[in-house]
Amino acid sequence: MRINRIGDALGAEVTDIDLRERLDSGIVAKINNAFTDHIVLVFRNQKFASPDEFISAAENLGEPMPPVTMTYRLPGYEVVEELKNNSMDKRTGNPIDQRGGSWHTDHSNLERPPKATTLFAISLPSSGGGNTEFTNMYLAFESLPGDIKHEIAGRRSFQAYESRRAPRKLLTRSEEEIEGSSGVWQPIVRKHPESGKPALYINPMRSDAIEGMEEREGDELLDILYRHFDNPDFQYSHEWRPGDMLIWDNRCALHQATPPVNPQELRYMHRIMLKGDLPIMADP
Question: What is the pTM of this model?
């Protein structure tokens, strides 16, 4: 197994490993250490013949969890979703905006958000595009001006299912799915449980208020933070190859999908999220 850095801000590729095979504890430990260090890992040339093999591969890094909504679940599977660039909202019949097509971290509106998300590429657009982009929220926090760090120290933001200012619409939920996913207060600066480092933990899709601030004041501060993290120096854009299995750390990175060059070409992937813990406030 080889691990090589592929992005200046974050990201590494893992080669010479077949995740269909049973991995010994030493290899699993090296993978998890690399995940902590690089935030995003891409396992090249994986050849999963079934969703079950993808699930087994994901289990090397954590415990799979079901998504909030059932709309995209792969028939017959509790924890595997289908990602397509031509999806429809099955409950409304309306086309879905580019899924994941703006900066976000997955399910920060849950009390225990997923620690990681993994995608496996099945069909890629031949004309290119459809990248997945990431931004390093450790770097975003480290580079904040001192007065802004002081302003957000010890504060929480309310993470709704869909912020009133969200840049795109999210899936319609059933009454059952709404229960437990409507929103929760989360630390704005989160302490990573493995690295111990502080990361900015905000989400333009879900951050809806800042603790102790009036709406206008909170919105202005969130906009400052949004402009700050959207910096190419913090980012890595992943150009997909057949057989790529990508996994990223939702606790210290945001991500977004970009559309294919030709929107008529199919971009089809399977997705699994991994269970996480209660977010911990970083020390002021």
Answer: 0.92
